[in-house]
Amino acid sequence: MRKSVQQMFKGLGVALITPFKTDGQIDFPSLTALVNRVVEEGVDYLLALGTTSEYPTLSPAEKDDVLACILEANAHRLPVMVGLGGPNTQFMIRKLEHLAPFEVDAILTVTPYYNKPSQAGLVAHYKAFTSATDLPVFLYNVPGRTSCNLEVATTLQIAKECPNVVGIKEASGYMKQILQLICNRPDNFLVISGDDLLTLPLMAAGADGLISVMANAFPGKVAQMVHHVIDQQLTDARLIHQQLVPLTIDCFKEGSPAGVKAIMAAQHVVENALRLPLVPVSEKLQKEIEQLVAGPLV
Fold first, then answer.
1. Which of 52, 71, 58, 73 is nearest to 142 (CA)?
2. pLDDT at position 297
3. Residue 28: strand, helix, or coil
4. Which residues belong to the active site?
5. Which residues neighbour 74 within 8 Å (Cβ) at sequence distance 6 or greater?
6. Among the listed residues 55, 53, 57, 68, the one whose alpha carbon sits nearest the alpha carbon of residue 104
7. Tell me: the pLDDT tens digits for 56-102?
8. Is the separation of the CB atoms in 216 and 34 below 8 Å?
9. CATH number of the domain at 5-228, out of 3.20.20.70, 3.10.450.50, 3.40.50.450, 3.60.10.10?
């Protein structure tokens, strides 16, 4: 029996990085190995072409190739969510047609960035976008990157008026807002943490899981933590959370995905390579990360 959307996307999703070679080309063998690793170590679904993938630095052809690589490596083992967002509503709708040949299970769509729409504009944007697709849609609120906050009342209105909007990745960091959303959401509307560091308290308060950056580097540990919370084993979840806190803080000190690529380079699983305008973390932070990766806790 096919799982419901809520079953498919409850738990741990990993926002996959795009590994690059030192010459700037995409490292497809490492991407394939990463997909296999996270699947085998217990994540529940994959997010392709999210912010962590360095999506804005990829050409249209490269985005297709990255998504195709992820789908081929996954081989239908886990559900796949794909990132699709931008500041131009009509352009996003046209991009839906381009997405049609790819067998994805849901769309994650960030609030329009840079042009700072009003809350009414956000409602109109999501109505237009979601009416152009039959796929389940997850909203993505990350005002630290977009300068646009999706307020609780607006999220609830969108959830009510757009039938295929089934959840939200909340990365605002506004605890009061996220807690209000958890308490007032409609039935079967998923609230997913978009912040590794806040996942344990948010899930303890009723959030449904995490879309994680850190799971690229520690898929097994992050999966155990998330699943422990779902199973109400909070003592075990807290222990893993506390183990990961120092590296999680370092992961985001100088931006993402620079931090997680520094961690994965210390693990010798990818090159420490990013595309401009992103650059690797500072030498000081890299050494600190290497010491933590080599330590007893991880």
1. 52
2. 62
3. helix
4. 140, 169
5. 35, 39, 46, 80
6. 68
7. 999 999 999 999 999 999 999 999 999 999 999 999 999 998 898 99
8. yes
9. 3.20.20.70
